[in-house]
Design goal:
Low-confidence stretches of chain A: none
Number of domains of chain A: 2
Radius of gyration of chain B: 17 Å
Largest sheet of chain A: 5 strands, parallel
Largest interface: A-B, 56 and 47 residues
Number of helices of chain A: 14
Strand content of chain A: 15-25%
Number of domains of chain B: 1
Helix content of chain B: 25-40%
Number of helices of chain B: 6
Structural class of chain B: alpha/beta
Oligomer: heterodimer
Mean pLDDT of chain B: 93
Mean pLDDT of chain A: 97
Shape of chain A: globular
CATH superfamily of the largest domain in chain A: Aconitase, domain 3
Number of strands of chain B: 7
CATH class of chain B: Alpha Beta
Strand content of chain B: 15-25%
Distance between the termini of chain B: 32 Å
CATH topology of chain B: Aconitase, domain 4
């Protein structure tokens, strides 16, 4: 029986010729990523060593990445103290891939990893963030884990007891219509699969739409596979992966590309015709409550958010700026823009996108996650309705259980900013 | 910390019932995420369900009380506080199904979780959780359990992920020393 891409990666990481779905493995980790929750990982890591007489030492400090992005700069003394604890640990352990609160190198972890060339095809990436699925866009097996599990990875360098997941194959063909983007494709897929349709499975993307899609779009797809419950999403590495890693991420060393075997077994195969896709909206209060934009057109919104680990990349800001150029954000609407990293901030500054957005009435925020999960700026009032390019809309997600969140693409967000109501950008 | 023991029988009352797709944003709202230590997270369990949260904080319910959930309990964020906050109250979570990361976090921390796809029960019902099924004493109905993931059996047997990892670390050191 042939293997899927993730089976091949797991076999290699476990020193095996082949692995079968359901087998329990302890594969070696190539990259272990955390953000502010490293404070909890450190606590659990020290707990592992307590009473052993061993000196607590991270297995390979160069394989650990820590990025401050959830509350930057710190919003409270508590957060600042947690961040200080992490900084001290980073320095004591000699952790190399550390991104502090800095305009020359900071940003959201799910953009920092790709743009710095930390993620390679064929590798295993574990992160203490559910959206670690994002990095499957570069052909890695990349998934979220909890803090104690990360502490175990730091100690041993392996994932404790991982079951080889089954795979759902998604084949996407056709050209996306103008003003319909990767976000619409993944919202549509999550709506079809439901919020639990891919639990304990990997979603492997194929088809000419994916082959023609830049890495920025593939990152959007894989980012939100967890919203269908998936362990990970993955796009098999190809020429575009190599182009991105060489040109954008500055990677020089040899790259591995795993393709699935022709007789690989899939739990399910889903086909999507991208050319027939309309802009999609996830309505409150679940990510799988997805409808085409015309069924919610006209809903009045109070705050619009463009950015985050899902849609804060240069292409997203370019699309928003293109729609908002020479226009104004409707009165009564707050438009907040979060670039995904400071590099993207600087690039969109040079390209003029930030000026266009600010002239239209947008507020440019620090690259960071805070608004999406309601922990750092951009809070919603009781009864507010938000329209956001982020990835979750559970009750209370943006910090106020008495508010509502609709999810959309940057194109829908920008078009709606002009009208003040949910609007079809086409 | 006692690990989740699927083999031990347990009887408890359903003290709180929730529906499908209960996210970690609901179990442990993001605004409390700067609080990370398992000793400090229990105060924020289901913080936006103010009545239930108040009852938890007053310790009105005995350890082993049951939260009954629909499918996909614990979806969303990987925040481990969602498991530690429930563990702190020694609640037992019976759900039709769980999201992956939450389920793993729960087992890693020794939170007692039970997968019962066909569970039918209401708040106030007393449930007897056996190794293979749940008996709802209010309805006298039995409901079959799904086993916990095979990948987690060794971690449960070790009493949670911290002792599991500690043992592996010591084994590794002694084999490299020998």
């Amino acid at each position: 029986m042939g293997m899927t891409v993730v089976q091949k990666i797991l076999a290699r990481a476990s020193g095996r010729r082949s692995v079968a779905v359901g087998e329990v493995l302890e594969p070696a980790v190539d990259l272990a990523m955390s953000h502010e929750n490293a404070a909890l990982v450190i606590n659990q890591f020290l707990e592992i060593y307590r009473g052993t007489g061993l000196e607590p030492k991270v297995w390979e400090p160069d394989r650990v990445a820590i990025i401050f992005d959830h509350r930057v700069p710190a919003e409270s003394a508590k957060t600042a103290t947690n961040q200080k604890k992490v900084r001290d640990f980073v320095s004591a352990q000699g952790i190399g891939k550390f991104h502090d609160i800095r305009g020359d190198s900071g940003g959201i972890c799910h953009q920092i990893l790709p743009e710095n060339g930390y993620v390679r095809p064929g590798t295993i990436v574990a992160g203490t963030d559910s959206h670690t699925t994002t990095h499957g866009a570069l052909g890695a097996f990349s998934f979220g884990i909890g803090a104690t599990e990360m502490a175990s990875v730091w100690a041993l360098g392996t994932v404790p007891n991982l079951e080889v997941p089954g795979t759902i194959k998604v084949e996407v063909g056709g050209t996306l219509p103008p003003n319909v983007s990767a976000k619409d494709l993944i919202l549509h897929l999550v709506g079809r699969l439901t919020a639990q349709g891919a639990t304990f499975k990997v979603i492997e993307f194929h088809g000419n739409t994916i082959r023609n899609m830049p890495t920025s779009g593939r990152l959007v797809l894989c980012n939100m596979t967890v919203e269908a419950g998936a362990t990970s999403g993955i796009v098999p590495a190809d020429g575009e992966t190599e182009r991105y890693l060489r040109e954008t991420a500055g990677v020089r060393d040899a790259l591995t590309a795993d393709a699935p075997d022709p007789d690989a077994a899939y739990d399910q195969v889903i086909q999507i015709d991208a050319s027939r896709l309309a802009p999609q909206i996830a309505r409150p209060h679940t990510v799988d409550n997805v409808v085409p934009v015309d069924s919610v057109q006209g809903v009045r919104v109070n705050q619009i958010v463009i950015g985050s680990c899902t849609n804060g990349r240069l292409e997203d800001l370019a699309a928003a700026a293109g729609i908002l150029k020479g226009r104004k954000v409707a009165s009564g609407v707050r438009l907040l823009v979060f670039p995904a990293s400071w590099r993207i901030y600087r690039e969109s500054l040079s390209a003029g996108y930030l000026a266009t957005l600010v002239e239209a009435g947008a507020v440019i925020m620090n690259p960071g996650c805070g608004c999406c999960l309601g922990v750092h700026q951009g809070a919603l009032a009781d009864g507010d309705i938000a329209l956001s390019t982020t990835n979750r809309n559970f009750p209370g997600r943006m910090g106020n259980p008495k508010s509502e969140v609709y999810l959309c693409s940057p194109e829908v967000a920008a078009a709606s900013a002009i009208t003040g109501v949910i609007t079809d950008p086409r | 910390m006692s690990p989740a023991h699927p083999d031990s029988a347990h009887t408890g009352k359903v003290v709180f019932q929730v529906g499908d797709d209960i996210s970690t944003d609901i179990i442990y709202p993001g605004r409390f995420m700067a609080t990370v230590l398992p000793s400090e997270t229990p105060q924020f369990a289901f913080a936006d369900y103010t009545e239930f949260n108040a009852r938890l904080k007053k310790k009105e319910m005995p350890p082993g009380s049951i939260v009954l959930a629909g499918s996909n309990f614990g979806c969303g964020s990987s925040r481990e506080q969602a498991a530690s906050t429930l563990k702190g109250h020694e609640l037992v979570i019976v759900a039709r199904s769980f999201a992956r990361i939450f389920l793993q976090n729960a087992i890693n921390l020794g939170l007692h979780v039970v997968i019962c796809p066909g569970i039918e029960a209401s708040e106030g019902d007393e449930l007897e959780v056996g190794p293979a099924s749940i008996l709802n004493k209010a309805t006298a109905q039995h409901h079959a359990l799904d086993p916990l993931p095979p990948a987690r059996q060794a971690i449960m047997a070790a009493g949670g992920l911290i002792p599991y990892t500690r043992r592996k670390l010591l084994e590794r050191r002694s084999s490299s020393a020998g």
